[in-house]
Amino acid sequence: MERGEAYGFSAAMSGAFLLSCLLFAAINRRQRGPYMDEVFHVPQAQAYCHGRFLQWDPMITTLPGLYLASVGVVKPAAWLFGWTGSVVCSAGMLRFINLLFSAGNFYLLYLLLSKIHQKNKAVSGFQRILSTLTLAIFPTLYFFTFLYYTDPGSVFFTLFAYLMCLYGNHKTSALLGFCGFMFRQTNIVWTVFCAGNVVAEKLNEAWKTELQKKKDEKTSSRKGSFSDLIRILWFLIEYLISLKNLVTLTVLTWPYIILAMVFFVFVFINGGIVVGDRSSHEACLHFPQLFYFLSFTVFFSFPHLLTPTKIRKFLLSLRKHPVQYSLVAVISLFLIWKFTYVHKYLLADNRHYTFYVWRKIFQRHELVKYVLVPVYMFAGWSFADTLKSKSIFWILMYFVCLLTVTVPQKLLEFRYFILPFLIYRLNIPFPSLYRQLLELAFYIVVNAVTFYLFLIKTFQWPNSDEIQRFMW
């Protein structure tokens, strides 16, 4: 990092943290007590603070990583600064842990952008800092910086594991992946993603060697026709059934393999992936979740995905390959018809934005979910088009992880999209400065509206005196 860029990064990070602290203070003045899921998380962390590590709220469905991390920070700080009484492990103190995770995420996002795009010399330090700032205030993640939820810590350890993987420190990466798993069980998928990065790199090297041997310049490991894709898949099968190749990959990825084995042992002993209350977290094949994620991504990345050029290219592709797109449309309609699930929380809780998205769009008419198929197709095409700079093996690996982490979820919950979105956004080519500024401005506006609704536009339910607030 050059001196000018270092100063700029320090100023951006310090400024963002200062503004976050001011916003944090405002939120804690308005909402002093636990809100929403904090009703479960805060008392559990307070039990740990008092040494009651065997006490467990059965309504909590995640492992105790957040509470252990909180105790590991708060208790030494209380001893160091002489804090006593109710301030130790209060709701405000516990929320501040996520503000620290948020600062860590800011730094990790910068390091990841620098590492992933290190070969692109055209990218300036200012652009890296701008993209870091934009992703650090990504609305769905940034909102939960100010509440005691698992998301900031979950993102921190997962991004840290990804960074260590890119630097080749796979044992450290697997250890950090375990920490991420302790925050949210589904983060094991992103540990597999880290291992997949190693495998994709080896596959890409072998594929290039294969092309060189055959002297076939027409086939590319990045994009091509359907027949090219069949050739790549056949090569993939041949490569993976080779004992020598499997041994090589095992030697490279053994830390991740051990962690995956630990995960399967946990699932076997626990009787499932969810701890605590499982009645509201049942796994299913909810394929439309992929369509919701793609729509979510287009919404938050519209400066990159929803451009006149993209639309023209999509229409041209549609005209050139009508049969393939017709087949995709038919499959999409079938998946929506047979695999759409509506969770009871989605219909019952009017504090979440998803409640209004579902009611205002999907419940307007029973055919709306089918009418949106062309939108999903464009979103999927534009999403894949922005990843064409990555190798086909990386893309396949990412999509497998994306499907694994989204499709089994019955509940439409935007928080589940945070990590797949961030990993996607980190890996697309750097956009123009204008689009970066537009994206940042959009995030600022969305955050401003979100916090205005949360802090000012409160409401009450009938037969209840409690103040209710809108949130993601």
Detailed description of the structure:
This protein has helices spanning 3-30, 38-49, 65-81, 91-116, 125-136, 139-143, 151-166, 170-183, 188-214, 226-240, 243-270, 288-300, 302-305, 308-320, 322-339, 344-348, 353-362, 368-371, 373-386, 392-406, 418-427, 433-455. The protein is mainly α. The chain is globular.
Mean pLDDT: 92
Helix content: 55-70%
Order of helices and strands: HHHHHHHHHHHHHHHHHHHHHH
Main sheet: strands, sense, barrel: none
Query: CA-to-CA gap between the ends?
Result: 36 Å
Number of strands: 0
Secondary-structure content class? mainly alpha
Number of helices: 22
Proportion of beta-strand residues: under 5%
| Low-confidence sequence ranges | 217-223
Rg from C-alpha positions? 23 Å
The global form is: globular
What's the quick description here?
Helices cover 70% and strands 0% of the residues. The protein is mostly helical and 472 residues long. Helix 4 runs antiparallel to helix 5 and helix 7 runs antiparallel to helix 8.
Features of this protein?
472 residues; mainly alpha
In terms of topology, how is this protein built?
Elements: H1 3-30, H2 38-49, H3 65-81, H4 91-116, H5 125-136, H6 139-143, H7 151-166, H8 170-183, H9 188-214, H10 226-240, H11 243-270, H12 288-300, H13 302-305, H14 308-320, H15 322-339, H16 344-348, H17 353-362, H18 368-371, H19 373-386, H20 392-406, H21 418-427, H22 433-455
